[in-house]
Amino acid sequence: MVAFPPRPPDGLPVPGRFAHLHPDDGACLMESxxxxxGGRFTDSPPGTHPAxxxxxxxxxxxxxxxxxxxxxxxxxxxxxxxxxxxxxxxxLVGSVVDAAGVLRxxxxxxxxxxxxxxxxxxxxxxxxAGGLPGRAADLVWWxxxxxxxxxxxxxxxxxxxxADRRLxxxxxxxxxxxxxxAAGDGGARDGRLPAGExxxxx
Length: 202
Prior knowledge:
Layout (H helix, E strand, L loop, with lengths): L28 H8 L13 H13 L2 H6 L3 H5 L9 H16 L4 H17 L7 H27 L4 H22 L18
């Protein structure tokens, strides 16, 4: 059992599930990231890639209190985790689909989603970010199949007996990879997409 502190670290709001109207009521992981970034109180801060923010919201809302407190330090890293390369969204979604596939290796649906993500990632690996047509295409994919694939895979992971462990590890790895990629592209922001939603709460 992971012990969690009686009060939030560094004077920040108490970690909690779902969205909040004001920091006095508590804050989810992404709302904490927004506060640390010095922006408005929101669960979709501009410094976090929308696909990563969607993953973080689901993890925050789905794990128990002890795991949520243990994930609290990630808020500072999430505040500035926005890779601009066009392959990132499908890479992130594909990693979540792959994690779900470990639990359901016979799932043809997960296998198909994984193939789509990996093919898209390979196709966009050397495509420059920027340009209205590219941004529009990325937005359509994220708000359509990309978000559906993510939600389905997270539903599988949330139903696992050891969901807290799996979800926490997945988010930690995703944040580390996002920050590595953001550092590699020099922090460019011209590949941003509007935030999408994602929920699967136990």
